[in-house]
């Protein structure tokens, strides 16, 4: 453990292993943290051995109160959260105030929502940190990340995927696109990347398998809901018969990079970080 003067970090945890990796990084640094698991989203089993509290997604006032009680001055949002209906959210007074303010916005996409949540947290006195800031090794430089590289036609598919992903990103629709042999099999919307992969696996043509292309949105609020991949993404792509995954260098977060690359190599998938023009 390394002594640190870093402020106590509040970790608001959704699904997946990203919150645990951030908590483990804090522990390795000797940094104090306070872990809040979002009920119905975060899996307590992934946080075994850690002290945590559970809170409803709609209990914004309780979240802020618990983080203040724990002495948190910085906050990170980590892990996937399925966007609920306003009714299912069961908002408390603070969340109701946020909903009322957000309702008047013209743009109600996921990025717009997360940007508004970040602004609200900072108005409450918390500095919001990006997961990538806390896990610096998770942002990849350009080039092949594993043993395999795409061939010429696959690079053409990646270029097409970048164009389409940028277009849907500007519309705040999603981060990811699936392309095979010059044909767009699907774009990510509300279902998320894993379900996009499964859906496109059923649509795949004969020949070399499809490619997942996943980029940040041009207007991305990187401190919340960054585009991510990890071992689970690789497993899903391999099961669906994909040939590779292309991500944005410096823009897509790779959870557990060593395991992700190793799993891709074992599955025979290329994993490529690309520079994607705006």
TrEMBL record:
Species in which this protein is naturally found: Hypericibacter terrae
Name of the featured protein: UDP-2,3-diacylglucosamine pyrophosphatase
One of the Pfam families matching this protein, by short name: LpxI_C
Lineage: Bacteria, Pseudomonadati, Pseudomonadota, Alphaproteobacteria, Rhodospirillales
Annotated TM spans: none
Domain LpxI N-terminal, first and last residues per copy: 9-136
All copies of domain LpxI C-terminal, residue ranges: 142-271
